[in-house]
Design brief:
235 residues, Histone Acetyltransferase, Chain A
Length: 235
Amino acid sequence: MPEALIEKIKPILEQEEMSEKKVKSASSALANVRVWIVAMVTYYSTLKIVNPMRETAKEMNAKLKIVMAELNIKLAEVAEINAKLDALNKSLADAVAMATKLGDDLDSCKKQLYRAEKMIVGLQGEKDSWTETVAKLGVDQIMLTGDCLIASGALSYNGPFISKFREELEELWRKKSRDLGIKFTEKISMRALLGNPMQIRQWNVSGLPGDNLSVENGIIMFGSRRWPLMIDPQT
């Protein structure tokens, strides 16, 4: 409806003859027409207020759509950045774990290297000891026949005699072996060849006296095939 028409109608509706009561008393049909005219005028007045608001809302919605589109783009970019950040954090955690493991491995390798160096130094000392032992065993092998001859003689015959006579017998056998050209270890004795230091120490702990005669008696006891013949120093 054009605004000029509305402006013409409004003064007419404001006249007393056009009041709802008088129109209704004149004609009920005309009263309905008046209701429709009033409604149209009210609708027009309302649209004058609402339409600008609709346009404003439309414009705002259009702007909102643009802003939301830009927001979605930014959110997508933020999501992409967060994904990259998560990947970088994971890579950092993996790198830190790897660095920690490498540090532990390095520390372990240093300890192993230190132990290996100590072992090498120790083995170098053992090498010298083994060299000396091998050399000694080579000499002992040469002397073994004479050493066993003297030790077996003492084992077989020294039991009934006192310590001094046992020593004289061993010295006599050493001299005779030397005369016959049989090689033996100097000052070899039955105790030196057949005695086990650990076993002798255990005998002493068990009550055997530590003198040479008692120890020799113990060696004869354990080294004889049959019952031994000996004199006990405590009678």
